[in-house]
Structure formats: structure tokens, C-alpha cells
Amino acid sequence: MTQKRQTLIAMLLSFLAGALSVVGFVLLGQFSQDGHPLVPAAHANAAQPLPQPPTPPTPWLKGTADEKFTQIERHLRGLDVTMAEIGYRYGELLLAGKTRNWEYAQYQTEKIDFALRLAIERRPKRAKSSEPFLNESLSEVMKAAKAKDAEQFDAALERLHSGCVQCHKAENVLYFKESVDRIKERSK
Description:
The protein is mainly alpha-helical. Helix content is 69%, strand content 3%. The termini are far apart.
């Protein structure tokens, strides 16, 4: 048998196999009414139509690129949402210190640092008042947590608390001192 004849027979067999598969699906009712092939359901032998792609959500951002960025900025808000996150993480940090869970204390310290740095990126006029908190108070907490030094950690937390209050004072929002005090009190 020649090479050309072998290739022709292989192509014919391939075609017949495909045609027989289609005939088998048709005879067994394996196509839906709209002509899509059915696939077996995972929980039963019954055939199910292939799932259709989900309908894309209605976009909530409207307008030009600049208008969309303005909308996103509005949703990110100022420092109020960041401060709520930092307040939560401060409470967790205090509890981690109380239980001497050093890894969790490091994690919360890193997240406080990250959240505040992102907030400053959005609100650069707050950078100057937050620098002592970030560069001194918070870094001392991290150093003590990494050293797993309970005495040093407790002292660093006291300075961190003062750093919170000093930053709030510099931003003329000293009335937030009460919330910082409440978080500290709850962790005792």
C-alpha cells in the first residue's frame, strides 16, 4: 500500500469516527433542542446542556476615565475608613502582645504600617504628622515583636499609644483619643 493511500484511509477513518459520534449523540438524544451537545451531570447519568457564560455585571463606573477615577476616589474615601481598619488592627496587636503571639503581633504591625502608608499616598498632607508614628513608634513595636522581648514590647506598645494620640493632636482631631483609649482598655 502506498503512502498516499494510507493517508487517505486514515483521513476517511477519522471522518467516519466523527460522523458515527454525531449519529450516536443524535440517536441517544444527546443534543439539546438548540443543537448544543449535552454533557453528563456530575450527580446523575442524566444529560445537561453546557452552561452559558454569565451575564456581565452592569458597570457602576460611569463617564470618562477622569470621572471614573473621581468615583473610585470617593469610594476609597479619606482616612476615616483607614483609621477604622487601623483601630481594629491596633486592638488585635494589643491582644497579640497580651498573649505573646509574636508572629500575629508582627502581622498586625505590618498591616497597620501598610494601611497608613496607603492612606498617606491618598492624603499626602497627613504625611508629616504620621512620620513619627510610622518611623519611630510602629518600628519599635516591630523590633520588639521580632525579638520576642515581652518587656520591650510592652514599652513599645505604650509609646505606640502615645504616637497615636500625638498624630491625632497634630491633625487637630484629639477627640479621637477616646477611641484609642477605649481600644486599649478593651484589650486588658
